Amino acid sequence: MSCDKFDRPVLVVVDHLGDEENGYTLTAASEHLLKVAGTLTNNEVIALVLNASPQMEKLSACGVSRVVVPELAGRSPRVSSVVADAVIAAERALAQNPLGAILCLSNYRGREVAAFLGAHFRSGAATDVTDVSVVDGAISAHKSVLGGQWKTAFTIPSGLPIVAMRPGAGEAAEPTPVATPGIIPVNVNFSAPSDAVEVMELEELKEHGPALTEAGTVVCVGYGTDGEIEDAQALADRLNGAIGATRAVCDEGWVERSRQIGQTGVSVAPNLYIGVGVSGAIHHTCGISGAQKIVVINEDEEAPLVKLADLAVIGDCHEVLAEVLTELEQS
User: Fold this and answer.
1) Domain range holding 105?
2) Would the annotation count 260 as a binding residue?
3) pLDDT tens per residue across span 283-309
4) What is the total count of domains within the chain?
5) Which of 37, 71, 73, 81 has the fewest beta carbons closer than 10 A?
């Protein structure tokens, strides 16, 4: 088998943070996904945006040559079927140069979107993908299964492949910026599921610090903290980072479920991951594979995460954190 690239375009569904009043910012996860898409094709990377005012300069820097802007007619892009209908309309508008693949993020909405699209195009849809490439002209995808105990590799040999990537996952490459990406406005024929749902009210979740999947530094608390996470939160604040947690910590109710990292949570790809009292079960470590540097504070020198770490501090996590915070205050 040989690794190669498509000679067809790749369409990427991207997300922005913000609103019309304050402007939109391309998410770090979408920026990474666009760079992954660039490794799959010798043709163009096309972005599908879900607002009327996308961050064009960032899309340009990510190598996007054209931007599809669907007319959502007041429907919410938080509804999976609405997004799927927009992608279907985009594929139809781009039919003169057929797509090689469609990529989206494997979050709660993205997994549903992939399912809708797989059914519509009668093609394979892969979710929670951790790595993707083109092998012998077909998509080759990797993912963790069975609670993270096994890693699998599989292909989508025919049809239009739909790939939902875990945020921050996959090998990215720095693209060549495009001076002025073209804009493609698209009218959408909405399906019955899209017309059946109306979002009446949207209340934004107030994040303490940066969003977990966007943070450059993540301080993750494990069961070894015994639920005492105040110092870990203080360290995250001091480093302008975000707090994450293992599944066991979320099961205990010590940290909200939205902060769970791993197989059944989110994937993160920070510059620095600090594991505090985290043993490092594989269903957790599969969610931090994109971290640039891993630092571990743990009493157990045999803990799996210690063996993965770039730097391990063996000791009581509360005592170590207290010393670290003192040093930071004095610096």
Assistant:
1) 3-195
2) yes
3) 898 888 778 899 999 999 999 999 999
4) 2
5) 73
Examine the domain organization and report whether 56 and 137 are in the same domain: yes
In a domain, 306, yes or no: yes
What is the pTM for the complete model shown? 0.81
pLDDT at 2 over 70: no
The amino acid present at 315, given as its one-letter code, is G
Q: Is 246 annotated to bind ligand?
A: yes
Q: What is the pLDDT of residue 261?
A: 93
To 5 degrees, how large is the angle CA 233–CA 234–CA 237?
85
262: annotated binding-site residue? yes
152 assigned to a ligand binding site? no
Q: Is 211 annotated as a binding residue?
A: no
Q: Is 247 annotated as a binding residue?
A: yes
Does 204 reside within a domain?
no
Q: Could you count the other beta carbons within 10 Å of the beta carbon of residue 109?
A: 20
Q: Which amino acid is at 298?
A: N
Task: Please write the tens of the pLDDT for every residue from 143-154.
Answer: 877 655 678 899
Q: What is the CATH number of the domain that holds 229?
A: 3.40.50.1220
Q: Would the annotation count 264 as a binding residue?
A: yes
Please tell me whether 278 is known to bind a ligand. yes
Tell me how far apart the alpha carbons of residues 316 and 62 are, in angstroms, rounded to a whole number: 43
Check the annotation: does 282 bind a ligand: yes
183 shares a domain with 115? yes
Q: Is 27 annotated as a binding residue?
A: no
CATH number (domain holding residue 62): 3.40.50.620
Report d(CA 281, CA 5) in Å as an integer: 35
Q: Residue 314 annotated as binding? A: no
3-state secondary structure of 104: strand
Q: Clarify whether residues 10 and 97 are in a common domain.
A: yes
pLDDT, tens digit, for every residue of 91-120? 999 999 999 999 999 988 999 999 999 999
pLDDT tens digits for range 167-206: 888 888 899 999 899 999 999 999 999 998 888 877 766 6
The candidate with the shortest Cα–Cα distance to 219, out of 232, 207, 230, is: 232
